[in-house]
Design goal:
L-fuculose-1-phosphate Aldolase; 7-stranded mixed sheet; globular; 501 residues
């Protein structure tokens, strides 16, 4: 039975905040199996109380369509780009595409990418495919190197079908399993062996989970601009830039994904940002009374391993309606919105204590117990439990994944760290804590340590093996067990089968 979904106790693993959704089925060029799976999904959605519409209207949240593997769909026909026009709507519904591969096709593709990625150096010609942009080989190589062959396959299917949300069905006449692909590279799967009813319930619940939350990126500018002289005088600015260099040396940040370098699309509309900058980090500045954080990569390309002060923003709180963060601008500086994870970066402090911090030159401050926060699409292979604490997300987040920059993710992260023993007790000797967002990545925090720059504790812990970073991100429930060296090691059961090949 699939380690990610069992046939019983489904209710204990679902989120309590799920909403009813309206879905319209608009089939494209599919196969009998995609038709069968689409029918099963719609039947289960109806049984769960959701609306399956014959005709799309202003209530339509999701458009489910189909495509064949290897089919090149032009952007003018792609629901993600022109669904609003094709369905004569005033809004753009979320497009989800069912793609069918036979087991033989899937194994052939995984084997192909495995061999191509094993070459050193990689041969770009191995990664050239019809319908992809000229620059796409570099992306397929980078993605596969960090996430395994299935991540290269994931990006190939997304680029050819011109859709980000993919349900990849593996099977002949009957489904064997279905993979759930998204923007950040998540690829959990559901197996048919759990039983037909549980199979379709899991797919439906994953779909509903994604559509029951919303982005919280409507940031609001508050207060008077900070004088540039005060901003530039803060050592935190240069320390952030130095931290970027340090983490880049350790290959922590994954490369930015530029959509037009992957797929042949003439321009990016409101369906998706033109680039997707992976990772963000922030640290508290006592004098500015807020966190200095990296800016969003959707505004312009941002190399998180080589930033300048123009790539930083000041966050001082969360909007009362929780639709975004409160930001203070800096006078005389370009002011670009902070990373999409801005709300979670500062909101988690609200559930934790504050501590006294004495600076040898600038006096005493009352500051949040967390000094710095570091997020990227990586996992944690091992950690020293005497120095680092693992704070798991609540159970539903391990079974029904949420997306980045959403209200649900910010809430889940806050809940996880609010239960941290090491953070609730400032005297706890563990100075770092982390959580894993299945299918997404890791969020690491550090306490204040006299004599150390922001993030220095984290990169030193990485160097000493107290916190071992992994390229792979678990796609479902994960666990750690005590290893022979005294560290907690992630279990093999925490990874999908393809990551263990």
């Amino acid at each position: 039975m699939n380690k990610y979904i069992q046939a019983n106790a489904v209710q204990s693993r679902t989120h309590p905040w799920l909403r009813n959704i309206h879905l319209h089925y608009h089939p494209g060029s599919g196969t009998p199996l995609t038709d069968r799976v689409a029918a099963g999904i719609m039947d289960k959605l109806r049984a769960l109380g959701h609306a399956v519409q014959q005709q799309a209207d202003e209530n339509t949240k999701v458009v489910l369509t189909t495509a064949e593997f290897g089919q090149i769909i032009g952007w003018r026909r792609a629901m993600m780009f022109t669904g609003r026009i094709q369905l004569k709507l005033k809004h753009a519904p979320v497009a989800v595409t069912l793609v069918h591969m036979t087991p033989a096709q899937f194994e052939e593709q995984i084997e192909y990418f495995s061999k191509a990625l094993a070459k050193s150096p990689s041969d770009p010609d191995d990664f050239r495919f019809e319908g992809l942009a000229e620059e796409s080989p570099g992306i397929l190589i980078e993605q596969g190197t960090r996430g395994g062959p299935i991540l290269s396959l994931l990006r190939l299917i997304q680029a050819q079908s011109k859709c980000i949300r993919i349900l990849l069905v593996i099977g002949e006449e009957t489904p064997e399993r279905i993979y759930h692909f998204d923007l950040v590279g998540a690829c959990p799967y559901t197996e048919y062996s759990v039983g037909e009813d549980a199979f379709y319930e899991d797919i439906a619940l994953r779909l509903v989970t994604y559509e029951s939350t919303w982005e919280i990126t409507q940031h609001e500018v508050v207060g008077d601009p900070v004088p540039y002289e005060k901003w530039r005088s803060r050592p935190t600015i240069d320390q952030m830039c130095q931290a970027a260099v340090e983490f880049d040396r350790r290959n922590f940040f994954t490369e930015m994904l530029v959509i037009t370098e992957l797929a042949n699309v003439p321009a990016i509309n409101d369906a998706i940002a033109s680039q997707y900058s992976e990772g963000c980090f922030a640290t508290w500045d006592p004098e500015l009374e807020g966190i200095i954080a990296t800016i969003t990569g959707s505004a312009r390309p941002v190399d998180k391993g080589n930033i300048t002060e123009e790539d930083l923003a000041l966050i001082v709180g969360v909007r009362p309606d929780r639709q975004g963060a409160l930001v203070r601008h800096i006078a005389g500086k370009k002011n670009i919105s902070p990373s999409s994870e801005a709300v979670e970066m500062i909101d988690m402090d609200d559930a934790l204590p504050r501590v006294g911090y004495n600076h040898m030159l600038n006096g005493s401050y009352n500051v949040p117990v967390i000094r710095s926060k570091l997020h990227c699409h990586r996992g944690v292979r091992a950690y020293d439990p005497d120095r680092v604490e693992y704070v798991p997300m609540d159970t539903p987040y391990h079974h029904y994944l949420v997306s980045c920059a959403t209200e649900a993710q910010a809430r889940g992260i806050k809940q996880a760290f609010s239960a941290s023993e090491s953070l609730l007790d400032p005297q706890d000797p563990r100075l770092a804590a982390f959580t894993i967002l299945p299918g997404h990545g890791v969020l690491i925090t550090e306490k204040w340590v006299e004599g150390k720059a922001p993030f220095q504790l984290i990169w030193e812990y990485m160097d000493m093996g107290y916190l071992e970073i992994d390229n792979f991100v678990p796609q479902g429930p994960l666990s750690y067990q005590l290893g022979p060296d005294g560290r907690m090691l992630v279990t093999r059961q925490s990874y999908p089968d393809w990551q263990l090949r």
